[in-house]
Amino acid sequence: MNILAVDDDDLMLELLVAALAETGHHNVMPVNSPISALDLIDALSDENDDLDRASFDCILLDIQMPEMDGIELCRRIRSKSAYRNTPILMITSMTDRSFIDRAFEAGATDYVTKPFDQFELAARIRMAKTLVTEQRKAFQSFFVASAMYTGLSDKKQAIFESPLSIEGVPKVVDYLVLENYLLQLSKKSVHRTVAIAFSIKEAKDAFELLDEEEYYGLLLDVAKVLASSLGETKFLISYFGSGFFVCVTDKSNYGSIRSLEVSKHVMKKSYKKLRPTVVVGDPIDSPITQSDDVHSLVLDAISSVAQKSMHEDKFPMAIKQLQPKAAKYNIGLRD
Q1: What is the pTM of this model?
Q2: How far apart are CA 156 and CA 136, in angstroms?
């Protein structure tokens, strides 16, 4: 695995390189300037003569740096097509929620605070790499397997229930990235988090009627409408499968969420004569004080919108898979 590490502190870079080497990661490129990092990425892309192939498999960024902070650097790297899905981990001493919010909104995959444990860091890098692999498999399953099965067979039902990354919409992230974000908040015992779920009421009908590209286009349109409706509000949205989207935001945005009206926007467009409606669930205001609260918050949000839309489907597969990373990988999370 080729790793790019960017930090203006040369000593920290040395520690990073040494720590990663002890866990089997020897191909680490240390860079002490954000501008130099961008220049390096561009130069390697030119050498490869392939703008869609990333030269680095994982990127580690400090936040507080001169010239440009790591969050802006993350945003600029994400804007490059080759790095749209590359794992980007923030390695920082900044623990305030505002930094966590901004980092994930800019496209961070995970957030690790200094001082870090080398084995925890290695585990998080593996998790981030696994995330990319799972995203790729999900896309392949959706665009290939869904076309192979007619009707709503068990296999096609599983595809319908599975989460899918919606790309190209700011602040719309993979469900595992949303989980990473919530796990960070759980370590801070945050009491100001609100989750709200949205359901495409005719999702199953649309999935049966439309081909895979048309159905993905519907999901993309809904994601754009939700993001547009929330405007400049700080939020993250993920698609969990079965027509369910979940938005997480700060409690201070409660009023904006309560006034959301998205159905009329989506219904302006028809999909093979189907006019989907989006049902808005009740905002779930629940403190996140431990990792188990992450699952409960998302589940309660989806339960709320499922009842409103009289959703007869099982909960999406992502809910069944959602579990605290600490338990899954047997790693300790620092406060």
Answers
A1: 0.84
A2: 18
